[in-house]
Design brief:
The chain is α+β, with helices and mostly antiparallel strands and about 220 residues long. The protein has 8 helices and 6 strands. It has 2 domains: about 100 residues, no CATH class; about 90 residues, OB fold (Dihydrolipoamide Acetyltransferase, E2P). Helix 2 runs parallel beside helix 6 and helix 5 crosses helix 6. Strands 1, 2, 3, 4, 5 and 6 form a 6-stranded antiparallel sheet that branches.
């Protein structure tokens, strides 16, 4: 029985690591890629300061939709029109337990419009007043963080189980590529002023008149 277990462990090790020589090369590659990923992740892009004032005047929160009024909501073919009047309960952060009213404005764009029903869990941005109280709540999207984390964890585990050491290299390479795009390529191609303006437009999207929102986001 012990011999069978030892053989199974050796076979698993051989599958996972390959030969010692190849594994050593892979280990060096993995270590270098991991170190570079960490270093690139902490490189300042200049966008942190540009959005600091927005973060100071608002907080993110998880909310539950407890009431929906669809009197001004219409569906014209595949496109939504009008708005939904929502009543939401804050589920996280310092405003947890508070109930606020919110409006879900439709832009007539299928990729951006979200429809909420009673009981939905949503991601929201709470705009603050000068004294630090909740001025208004903007419901942005359905809350998917928990499901996304579970799916990402399952993907990582499945990749490692199926592909072994090669799977770890693939994951590290993927993360390194994503960090390079987000922290180096995109910031170098787009000036800070453009990012700052876009963030301001998005943060005020639901407080602007509908024609102004259309002109900004077209």
């Amino acid at each position: 029985m012990n011999n069978v277990i030892k053989k199974a462990v050796l076979m698993a090790g051989a599958f996972f690591l390959g030969s010692f020589k190849e594994s050593r090369k892979d280990l060096i590659f993995t270590a270098v890629a991991g170190i570079l990923t960490v270093l690139v992740f902490f490189i300042p892009t200049g966008f942190e300061e540009s959005g600091a004032h927005i973060r100071q005047n608002s907080v993110r929160a998880k909310v539950r939709v407890i009431e929906v009024n669809n009197e001004m909501f219409r569906m014209i073919g595949p496109v939504y029109n009008g708005w939904q009047q929502l009543q939401v309960q804050v589920l996280s952060g310092r405003f947890k337990g508070e109930i606020h009213r919110s409006f879900n404005n439709m832009l007539g764009r299928m990729e951006m419009d979200k429809v909420f029903t009673e009981g939905n869990i949503a991601f929201a941005v709470i705009n603050l007043s000068e004294d630090g109280l909740a001025a208004n709540v903007q419901v942005m999207d359905h809350y998917r963080t928990g499901k996304t984390i579970i799916l990402a964890a399952l993907f990582i585990i499945a990749t490692i189980i199926i592909m072994g050491w090669m799977g770890i290299k693939i994951l590290i390479t993927f993360i390194f590529s994503a960090v390079m795009l987000i922290r180096i390529l995109y910031p170098s191609c787009m000036p800070v002023s453009a990012i700052s303006t876009w963030r301001i437009c998005l943060s005020r999207e639901y407080s602007l008149p509908r024609p102004a929102r259309w002109w900004i986001l077209r």
